[in-house]
Write a structure and sequence with these properties.
Blueprint lengths: L17 E10 L4 H9 L4 E8 L5 E10 L2 H14 L2 E2 L1
Antiparallel strand pairs: 1-3, 1-4, 2-3
Helix pairs in contact: 1-2
Length: 88
Protein backbone atom coordinates (compact mmCIF):
# COMPACT_ATOMS: atom_id res chain seq x y z
CA UNK A 1 0.00 0.00 0.00
CA UNK A 2 1.35 3.45 -0.95
CA UNK A 3 1.96 5.97 1.78
CA UNK A 4 0.46 9.42 1.31
CA UNK A 5 1.71 12.56 2.98
CA UNK A 6 -1.43 14.24 4.33
CA UNK A 7 -0.90 17.79 5.56
CA UNK A 8 -4.66 18.37 5.97
CA UNK A 9 -4.59 21.01 3.27
CA UNK A 10 -1.87 22.98 5.02
CA UNK A 11 1.41 24.15 3.52
CA UNK A 12 4.51 22.64 5.12
CA UNK A 13 6.32 24.86 7.59
CA UNK A 14 9.60 26.00 6.05
CA UNK A 15 11.99 27.76 8.38
CA UNK A 16 13.94 30.49 6.57
CA UNK A 17 16.66 31.13 5.71
CA UNK A 18 17.24 27.68 4.25
CA UNK A 19 19.07 26.02 1.41
CA UNK A 20 16.42 25.03 -1.15
CA UNK A 21 17.12 22.23 -3.60
CA UNK A 22 16.17 22.50 -7.28
CA UNK A 23 16.73 19.98 -10.08
CA UNK A 24 17.38 21.99 -13.25
CA UNK A 25 17.46 20.45 -16.74
CA UNK A 26 19.08 22.23 -19.68
CA UNK A 27 19.60 21.55 -23.36
CA UNK A 28 23.04 19.98 -23.82
CA UNK A 29 24.43 23.11 -25.52
CA UNK A 30 23.30 25.53 -22.77
CA UNK A 31 25.88 27.40 -20.69
CA UNK A 32 24.47 26.34 -17.33
CA UNK A 33 27.01 28.25 -15.24
CA UNK A 34 26.12 31.58 -16.85
CA UNK A 35 22.40 30.89 -16.63
CA UNK A 36 22.59 29.88 -12.97
CA UNK A 37 24.71 32.95 -12.14
CA UNK A 38 22.19 35.20 -13.91
CA UNK A 39 19.29 33.66 -11.97
CA UNK A 40 20.77 33.35 -8.47
CA UNK A 41 22.86 36.52 -8.54
CA UNK A 42 24.89 36.93 -5.36
CA UNK A 43 22.95 34.32 -3.37
CA UNK A 44 25.01 31.60 -1.74
CA UNK A 45 24.58 28.49 -3.93
CA UNK A 46 26.09 25.18 -5.00
CA UNK A 47 25.57 23.43 -8.34
CA UNK A 48 26.51 19.81 -8.99
CA UNK A 49 26.09 17.74 -12.16
CA UNK A 50 23.35 15.14 -11.91
CA UNK A 51 22.78 13.33 -15.18
CA UNK A 52 23.00 13.44 -18.98
CA UNK A 53 20.13 12.06 -21.03
CA UNK A 54 20.63 8.77 -22.85
CA UNK A 55 20.71 10.50 -26.26
CA UNK A 56 22.80 13.44 -24.98
CA UNK A 57 20.16 16.13 -25.69
CA UNK A 58 19.78 17.21 -22.06
CA UNK A 59 21.89 17.60 -18.94
CA UNK A 60 20.64 18.00 -15.40
CA UNK A 61 22.04 19.60 -12.27
CA UNK A 62 21.26 19.77 -8.57
CA UNK A 63 21.15 23.37 -7.44
CA UNK A 64 21.11 24.32 -3.78
CA UNK A 65 20.40 28.01 -3.08
CA UNK A 66 20.13 29.93 0.17
CA UNK A 67 16.69 31.58 0.18
CA UNK A 68 15.19 33.76 2.87
CA UNK A 69 11.44 33.61 2.14
CA UNK A 70 8.65 31.86 0.23
CA UNK A 71 8.51 34.70 -2.27
CA UNK A 72 12.27 34.51 -2.93
CA UNK A 73 12.08 30.72 -3.35
CA UNK A 74 9.19 30.99 -5.84
CA UNK A 75 10.77 33.92 -7.71
CA UNK A 76 13.94 31.90 -8.19
CA UNK A 77 11.90 28.94 -9.44
CA UNK A 78 10.25 31.20 -12.04
CA UNK A 79 13.59 32.61 -13.19
CA UNK A 80 15.10 29.17 -13.56
CA UNK A 81 12.02 27.96 -15.42
CA UNK A 82 12.37 30.75 -17.99
CA UNK A 83 15.98 29.79 -18.80
CA UNK A 84 15.88 25.99 -18.67
CA UNK A 85 13.93 23.05 -20.08
CA UNK A 86 12.55 21.89 -16.71
CA UNK A 87 12.82 22.76 -13.03
CA UNK A 88 11.77 20.40 -10.25
Amino acid sequence: MAQICDLNGKKPDIIYPTFWEYKVIFDSNADEKSIIKECVGERNHKITPSNISKNGKFKSFNLSVLVSSDSERLELFSLLKKHSKFVL
